[in-house]
Protein backbone atom coordinates (compact mmCIF):
# COMPACT_ATOMS: atom_id res chain seq x y z
CA UNK A 1 0.00 0.00 0.00
CA UNK A 2 1.45 3.34 -0.97
CA UNK A 3 -0.19 6.36 0.59
CA UNK A 4 2.02 9.34 -0.19
CA UNK A 5 0.65 11.87 2.27
CA UNK A 6 -0.48 10.65 5.66
CA UNK A 7 -3.42 12.23 7.40
CA UNK A 8 -1.91 11.58 10.85
CA UNK A 9 1.89 11.57 10.57
CA UNK A 10 2.57 10.82 14.24
CA UNK A 11 -0.15 8.68 15.78
CA UNK A 12 0.03 7.61 19.41
CA UNK A 13 1.08 3.96 19.66
CA UNK A 14 -0.09 1.89 22.61
CA UNK A 15 1.15 -1.37 24.05
CA UNK A 16 -1.07 -4.28 23.03
CA UNK A 17 -2.81 -6.39 25.61
CA UNK A 18 -2.27 -10.06 26.10
CA UNK A 19 -5.60 -11.71 25.55
CA UNK A 20 -5.67 -15.13 27.16
CA UNK A 21 -8.94 -16.93 26.73
CA UNK A 22 -10.19 -19.34 29.33
CA UNK A 23 -10.59 -22.79 27.87
CA UNK A 24 -13.68 -24.54 29.12
CA UNK A 25 -14.53 -28.20 28.76
CA UNK A 26 -17.31 -27.31 26.30
CA UNK A 27 -14.73 -25.56 24.07
CA UNK A 28 -13.13 -28.93 23.38
CA UNK A 29 -16.41 -30.73 22.72
CA UNK A 30 -17.19 -30.64 18.99
CA UNK A 31 -20.75 -31.83 19.60
CA UNK A 32 -21.51 -28.61 21.49
CA UNK A 33 -21.86 -25.26 19.71
CA UNK A 34 -19.80 -22.64 21.54
CA UNK A 35 -21.32 -19.18 21.80
CA UNK A 36 -19.47 -16.33 20.12
CA UNK A 37 -18.26 -13.84 22.73
CA UNK A 38 -16.58 -10.44 22.97
CA UNK A 39 -13.08 -11.90 23.29
CA UNK A 40 -13.49 -14.03 20.18
CA UNK A 41 -14.73 -11.09 18.10
CA UNK A 42 -11.99 -8.82 19.44
CA UNK A 43 -9.39 -11.43 18.59
CA UNK A 44 -10.62 -11.31 14.97
CA UNK A 45 -10.21 -7.52 14.61
CA UNK A 46 -7.35 -6.49 16.90
CA UNK A 47 -4.59 -7.33 14.41
CA UNK A 48 -6.09 -5.62 11.38
CA UNK A 49 -3.44 -3.33 9.97
CA UNK A 50 -4.17 0.39 9.80
CA UNK A 51 -4.41 1.51 6.13
CA UNK A 52 -2.06 4.43 6.74
CA UNK A 53 0.53 3.09 9.19
CA UNK A 54 2.34 -0.24 9.67
CA UNK A 55 0.53 -0.64 12.98
CA UNK A 56 -2.52 -2.60 14.08
CA UNK A 57 -5.85 -1.11 15.05
CA UNK A 58 -5.17 -2.33 18.58
CA UNK A 59 -1.79 -0.58 18.74
CA UNK A 60 -3.46 2.68 17.73
CA UNK A 61 -6.38 2.14 20.15
CA UNK A 62 -8.75 2.34 17.22
CA UNK A 63 -10.31 -0.86 18.55
CA UNK A 64 -10.48 -2.26 22.04
CA UNK A 65 -12.30 -5.11 23.71
CA UNK A 66 -14.62 -2.88 25.74
CA UNK A 67 -16.16 -1.52 22.54
CA UNK A 68 -17.18 -4.92 21.19
CA UNK A 69 -20.72 -6.01 22.03
CA UNK A 70 -21.96 -9.51 21.27
CA UNK A 71 -25.42 -10.99 21.71
CA UNK A 72 -24.89 -14.56 20.55
CA UNK A 73 -28.48 -15.61 21.22
CA UNK A 74 -29.72 -12.69 19.09
CA UNK A 75 -26.98 -13.28 16.47
CA UNK A 76 -25.83 -9.68 16.69
CA UNK A 77 -22.37 -8.08 16.89
CA UNK A 78 -21.71 -4.37 17.34
CA UNK A 79 -18.19 -3.01 17.07
CA UNK A 80 -17.46 0.62 17.84
CA UNK A 81 -14.11 2.06 16.82
CA UNK A 82 -12.27 5.31 17.47
CA UNK A 83 -10.39 7.02 14.62
CA UNK A 84 -6.97 8.38 15.63
CA UNK A 85 -8.02 11.94 14.76
CA UNK A 86 -11.49 13.58 14.52
CA UNK A 87 -11.13 14.32 10.80
CA UNK A 88 -9.63 10.97 9.79
CA UNK A 89 -10.34 10.37 6.11
CA UNK A 90 -9.58 6.67 6.60
CA UNK A 91 -12.46 6.08 9.04
CA UNK A 92 -14.77 4.55 6.44
CA UNK A 93 -11.98 2.31 5.13
CA UNK A 94 -11.11 1.17 8.67
CA UNK A 95 -14.75 0.37 9.37
CA UNK A 96 -15.00 -1.49 6.06
CA UNK A 97 -11.97 -3.60 7.00
CA UNK A 98 -13.56 -4.48 10.35
CA UNK A 99 -16.86 -5.37 8.65
CA UNK A 100 -15.20 -7.54 5.99
CA UNK A 101 -13.10 -9.38 8.57
CA UNK A 102 -16.19 -10.20 10.64
CA UNK A 103 -18.34 -11.13 7.64
CA UNK A 104 -15.63 -13.52 6.48
CA UNK A 105 -15.11 -15.03 9.94
CA UNK A 106 -18.42 -15.16 11.79
CA UNK A 107 -21.28 -17.55 11.02
CA UNK A 108 -23.72 -16.13 8.45
CA UNK A 109 -26.47 -15.89 11.07
CA UNK A 110 -24.82 -12.81 12.61
CA UNK A 111 -25.93 -9.27 11.89
CA UNK A 112 -22.84 -7.07 12.11
CA UNK A 113 -23.01 -3.37 12.92
CA UNK A 114 -19.91 -1.19 12.76
CA UNK A 115 -19.95 2.31 14.21
CA UNK A 116 -17.59 5.17 14.92
CA UNK A 117 -17.67 5.81 18.69
CA UNK A 118 -19.94 8.70 19.52
CA UNK A 119 -18.17 12.05 19.49
CA UNK A 120 -14.88 10.79 18.00
CA UNK A 121 -15.26 11.85 14.34
CA UNK A 122 -16.56 15.02 12.73
CA UNK A 123 -18.51 13.03 10.09
CA UNK A 124 -19.65 10.28 12.43
CA UNK A 125 -23.23 10.04 11.12
CA UNK A 126 -22.11 9.85 7.47
CA UNK A 127 -19.45 7.23 8.19
CA UNK A 128 -21.89 5.11 10.21
CA UNK A 129 -24.49 5.32 7.43
CA UNK A 130 -21.98 4.18 4.81
CA UNK A 131 -20.63 1.32 6.94
CA UNK A 132 -24.06 -0.13 7.69
CA UNK A 133 -25.67 0.21 4.26
CA UNK A 134 -25.49 -3.16 2.47
CA UNK A 135 -25.61 -1.63 -1.01
CA UNK A 136 -22.83 0.86 -0.28
CA UNK A 137 -20.65 -1.85 1.25
CA UNK A 138 -21.27 -4.16 -1.72
CA UNK A 139 -20.45 -1.36 -4.17
CA UNK A 140 -17.25 -0.52 -2.29
CA UNK A 141 -16.14 -4.15 -2.42
CA UNK A 142 -16.71 -4.26 -6.18
CA UNK A 143 -13.99 -1.62 -6.55
CA UNK A 144 -10.84 -3.65 -7.26
CA UNK A 145 -8.45 -1.06 -5.82
CA UNK A 146 -10.46 -0.68 -2.63
CA UNK A 147 -10.78 -4.45 -2.22
CA UNK A 148 -6.99 -4.78 -2.63
CA UNK A 149 -6.45 -2.20 0.14
CA UNK A 150 -8.92 -4.02 2.43
CA UNK A 151 -7.21 -7.34 1.75
CA UNK A 152 -3.80 -5.80 2.54
CA UNK A 153 -5.12 -4.50 5.87
CA UNK A 154 -6.54 -7.94 6.65
CA UNK A 155 -3.43 -9.82 5.57
CA UNK A 156 -1.83 -9.28 8.98
CA UNK A 157 -4.97 -10.30 10.85
CA UNK A 158 -4.84 -13.71 12.48
Automatic annotation (TrEMBL):
GO cellular component, one term: iron-sulfur cluster assembly complex
Record's protein name: DUF59-domain-containing protein
One record GO biological process: chromosome segregation
Species in which this protein is naturally found: Linderina pennispora
Domain MIP18 family-like: 38-114
InterPro entries for this protein: FSCA_dom_sf (IPR034904), MIP18 (IPR039796), MIP18-like (IPR002744)
Family: Belongs to the MIP18 family.
Lineage, uppermost ranks: Eukaryota, Fungi, Fungi incertae sedis, Zoopagomycota, Kickxellomycotina
Keywords: Chromosome partition
Amino acid sequence: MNITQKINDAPLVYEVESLERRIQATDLDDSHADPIDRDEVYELIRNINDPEHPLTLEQLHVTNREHVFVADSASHVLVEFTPTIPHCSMATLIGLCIRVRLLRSLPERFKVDIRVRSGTHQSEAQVNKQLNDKERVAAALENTYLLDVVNQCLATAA
